[in-house]
Amino acid sequence: MLKETFGVAKPIIAMIHFPPLPGSPLYDPKGGLQKILDSAAADISALQAGGVDAVMFGNEGDRPYLLKASPVSLAAYGALVGELKRLVKVPFGVNYLWDPVASVALGVASGATFVREIFTGVYDSDMGLWAPDAAAAVRLRADAGRPDLKLLYNINAEFASPVGTRSIGQRAKSAVFASLADAVLVSGPMTGEAVELSQLKEARAAVPLTPLFANTGVNIDNVEAILAVADGCIVGTHFKVDGDTWKNVDGARVKRFMDKVAKLR
Known about the structure:
Blueprint: H1 2-6, E1 12-17, H2 32-50, E2 54-58, H3 71-84, E3 92-95, H4 100-110, E4 114-117, E5 123-125, E6 128-130, H5 134-143, E7 150-154, E8 160-162, H6 168-177, E9 183-186, H7 197-206, E10 212-214, H8 223-227, E11 232-235, H9 251-264
Parallel strand pairs: 1-2, 1-11, 2-3, 3-4, 4-7, 7-9, 9-10, 10-11
Antiparallel strand pairs: 5-6, 5-8
Helix pairs in contact: 2-3, 2-9, 3-4, 4-5, 6-7
């Protein structure tokens, strides 16, 4: 599935973090959507020049995050992707934090290749009690006639702790068996913080035939160890100027990272 979807066996998916969208407390009304477009377009250019295998749009700037999409921010997100996708020459995905149904809707409407989100589980989170609806999201994909839209399940949410005692391996296996995950993602405790290698290995053992990604905190120093276990990585913060999540992409950092990955692959 990975070669068919991304063109390589160990894909690196790079994040395009939107600045705060309309409706978000930190939105800049003076800069408007044009400021967001300019920021994202610059990131797309730097990421593709650096050689990433795919990109993913995300509303990382919309703090504090919602568990159900805001109509205005969802509409703005869709409009932005509609404008920007003409610049994208690699497979692209979408992710609306933290709403799997909205994310799939965006994926369908934009023609995305894949969607990432928290689809399964129940969590004690900074945003309150969090119970995503995998069934609704997967049914929406089917109803929309997009069986090709790959669903990447993040199984240990950032900014949250799972309610219950199931291990990461049990959650990975259940996400594939009961909820039809196309790929399983393992995260660190929050954006930019590395996944625990032991958890990645446990998930690998539980779902040996399902693509497995490290979802946060991948950098040039740990990518070799991570790709020895995982089938791919999602990289956001490490590609930014000074490794700062809220800055734009640094093309030189991207190239150094991808040069190393090329040697590992």
